[in-house]
Amino acid sequence: MAEYRGCVLPEDVFYDLDYVWFRRELAGRVTIGVTDPAQTMAGRVQAVHIKKVETEIRPGRHVATVESGKWVGGIPVPFAATVVERNEAVLAEPHLLNVDPYGQGWIARLQPKETDQAFAGLTTGAAAIAALQQWIDRYDLECMRCSD
Amino acid sequence: MARLSEVFRRDHQRLEEIIGEVERRVATGEWPQALAGFTSFREAIERHMAVEEQWLFPVAETDDVPASSALTATLRKGHRDLRVFFEELQDALAARDDEEFRQTAATMRELLRLHDEKEEVELYSAVESCLDNDGAAVIARLAGQ
What we know:
The structure holds two protein chains of two kinds. By secondary structure, chain A is an alpha+beta fold. Chain A has four helices and twelve strands. Chain A has a seven-stranded antiparallel β-sheet. A three-stranded antiparallel β-sheet of chain A has the order 6-8-9. The longest helix of chain A is centred in the C-terminal third of the chain and has 14 residues, at 125-138. The two termini of chain A are 24 Å apart. The relative contact order of chain A is 0.26. Chain B is mainly alpha-helical. Chain B contains five helices and no strands. Chain B has helices at 4-27, 31-60, 69-94, 98-131, 134-142. The two termini of chain B are 16 Å apart. The chains are: A alpha+beta, B mainly alpha. At the A-B interface, strand 8 and strand 9 of A face helix 3 and helix 4 of B.
């Protein structure tokens, strides 16, 4: 697990190189969440809205929206997919995104329309870590995990 | 003649009022009126963003303006993000899904508020002194002339 300026950057997930990570699961499903540097930049998350289960997501559309005291925005999905599970714990306690962004703070599970193509536009491994380190430097971030 | 910054600020307020009226129509179940209002909103905000992208951002990206390319990169990304929300709002209206519309509209309006604030504080004042007589042409384009 890579770490840079306090930011945890797992090598085994895929990234859009902005603020979203994607993890390959069994049966071709994909779990989606926000990165550690992104949660740091957003600050304490106050609200999360996730699309209903069975919602069809077109490429580029949002599966969720996130609001903190200083940031608001959508969580984009770059491939066509169906929402198969929402993280009810995050809906009840949005702050989990800050506490455990790659674990308990996952946002949704998706079933891509074309499993083979889902990761085509995403980056993983050393190339992703290098790009994310540049992202962290660009915003001059030091990652923090709020525990309360 | 009104200053460019003032004209764009007033246009932000006008757009806020139009989308606010759409939200009220959705809340009372007046779907045809809501859809018509949203069509007007999209036409107006697309004109607003197009004028900024074609006329104001390029000025801000020149070396002699105290606004950086980083600012316009952020604002251009903001426009792209907003356009995704507009598509999602259009879909929610077509499906007559008031819950989806309400949640998406709330997020979009907050994103729009933060975006407008950044433009009003950092962009308009930086570019208007460089536009000189071109400022009137930009204002005319915003008015659809």
